[in-house]
Amino acid sequence: MQIQWNELTEAQQAAALARPAQSNNPQLSEQVSDIIDRIRTNGDAALLDYTARFDGVNLATVKLSTEAKATALAQLGTDVKAAIDIAYRNIKAFHTAQMPKDVTLETQPGVLCELKHVALDAVGLYIPGGSAPLPSTVLMLGTTAQVAGCLRKVLVSPPNAQQSLAPEIIYAATLCGIDEIYLCGGAQAIAALALGTESIAKVDKIFGPGNSYVTEAKQQVALLAGGPAIDMPAGPSEVLVLADKDADADFVASDLLSQAEHGKDSQAILVTESQALAAAVELAVADQLARLSRQEIAAHAMQYARYIVCDDITQAIQVSNLYAPEHLIVQVTDTDTALAQLKYAGSIFVGPYSPESAGDYASGTNHVLPTYGYSRNYSSLGLLDFMRRFTVQTLSKAGLQDLGPAIMHLAEAEGLDAHKNAVAIRLAKLNAGTRDA
Ligand SMILES: NC(=O)c1ccc[n+]([C@@H]2O[C@H](COP(=O)([O-])OP(=O)(O)OC[C@H]3O[C@@H](n4cnc5c(N)ncnc54)[C@H](O)[C@@H]3O)[C@@H](O)[C@H]2O)c1
Ligand SMILES: N[C@H](CO)Cc1c[nH]c[nH+]1
Ligand SMILES: [Zn+2]
């Protein structure tokens, strides 16, 4: 259904850009907190119990065995293997290029300041598996952790009926040098990574998208005393296509549907200057939808679709900035002018030949992106997320003699005598001797 942006009140405009309810489960927070408590108390036994209950798989142990790995790898087709290799190469190249440079600066004579970067030691990588197994997410998280140089890379994902994971997931993990793989998903897997169990040693930071249980669990464990860091709120997929009257309706429809098929709570939005294009896209969506294997899921998600018609592209850009989408597809003639004004998006796809799936799989950019409007204040996942930075300072005797008085004045202004003394005692000893360079 088309929406004429200018005919809406401010409240109606806000409603038009509302996301589907994140969860219609009012007990979510309590349910997730119970799961975390049970993992804390019962470790592996609780993990196996939840896997039986939520994934319908009865496992004897949570670790993926070497034999299961070998069996899965033997089943992998050559075409998909080659495709994973291409994606891995591009993702690795783009993330290697993000390697940060350390900084060394003498802010004033004798006062040396350094900024250094090191990889995180142990990272937990959540790979969704409820609705579809996502080997591409293994590449996005695993390659980046590998390029950063993280020592321990721990992959968790819900098991399939064969008590294993998709061969593509296992192959991608092997390429990324991941040798710890555990068969568990949902909130219980996040709790295991955060707290540790008999089988899984806890990690320093947890990465990866997931459903509402996973996202809620990440948020809860991040608040625990001594809990892990987390990457970002990466929830149900969403896409906004910004298109002018000359855009190809079939291309636009295909990008809207490629995100709608992720889950029933995914969202797809078209913002255009052209009523005719909006109408053509609606027809193209109906046509393509009828032939999708995940038609039911995509059709459900398209209930939340919006076809917004604006006065012109400038207004359409304002609407896009208001929504702050995870994925933004720009199909307008003057892309340079549009890009200069587009402020918020997790990842941008420019021109008719940059489908959203290019970034989802293989162009080299990361597909783990902030959703729910968080692209306003969170970044897309990158190499730096797998590293921490810290500073180092080294003052010479002369450096402290020059800077010391300023430090003492500031300490005095804050009424912090011990801070002042830490300088004064050194300066007194120094001034009793000779001044060094
Ligand atoms: N933002 C991004 O970067 C990005 C990238 C990829 C995927 N995604 C999104 O990730 C999501 C993946 O979700 P999914 O469901 O397919 O897989 P998932 O692995 O996140 O969730 C499956 C798990 O949820 C748990 N679960 C299911 N029902 C439960 C219940 N009633 N109570 C407690 N736990 C329960 C189970 O433990 C199960 O293993 C999708 O919404 C997709 O759009 C986002
Ligand atoms: N579009 C998803 C991120 O929102 C990523 C993905 C994985 N596979 C296909 N797509
Ligand atoms: Zn996708």
TrEMBL record:
Stated EC number for the protein is 1.1.1.23
Cofactor notes: Binds 1 zinc ion per subunit.
Q: Which GO terms describe its cellular component?
A: cytosol
Q: Where is the active site?
A: 326 (proton acceptor), 327 (proton acceptor)
Identify the metabolic or biological route this protein is part of. Amino-acid biosynthesis; L-histidine biosynthesis; L-histidine from 5-phospho-alpha-D-ribose 1-diphosphate: step 9/9
Any single GO BP term: L-histidine biosynthetic process
Which annotated residues bind substrate?
Answer: 237, 259, 262, 327, 360, 414, 419
Report the superkingdom from the record: Bacteria
Q: Gene3D superfamilies from the xrefs?
A: 1.20.5.1300, Nitrogenase molybdenum iron protein domain
Entries under InterPro entries matching the protein: Ald_DH/histidinol_DH (IPR016161), Histidinol_DH_CS (IPR001692), Histidinol_DH_monofunct (IPR022695), Hstdl_DH (IPR012131)
Identify the residues that bind Zn(2+).
Answer: 259, 262, 360, 419
Task: Report the cofactors.
Answer: Zn(2+)
- Drop me one GO molecular function for this one: zinc ion binding
| Coiled coil start-end | none
Give the similarity note.
Belongs to the histidinol dehydrogenase family.
Main role?
A: Catalyzes the sequential NAD-dependent oxidations of L-histidinol to L-histidinaldehyde and then to L-histidine.
The record's annotation in PANTHER family points to: HISTIDINE BIOSYNTHESIS TRIFUNCTIONAL PROTEIN (PTHR21256:SF2), HISTIDINOL DEHYDROGENASE HDH (PTHR21256)
Q: Which HAMAP family match?
A: HisD
Which NCBIfam families does UniProt cross-reference here? hisD (TIGR00069)
* Name of the featured protein: Histidinol dehydrogenase
Q: Write the gene name.
A: hisD
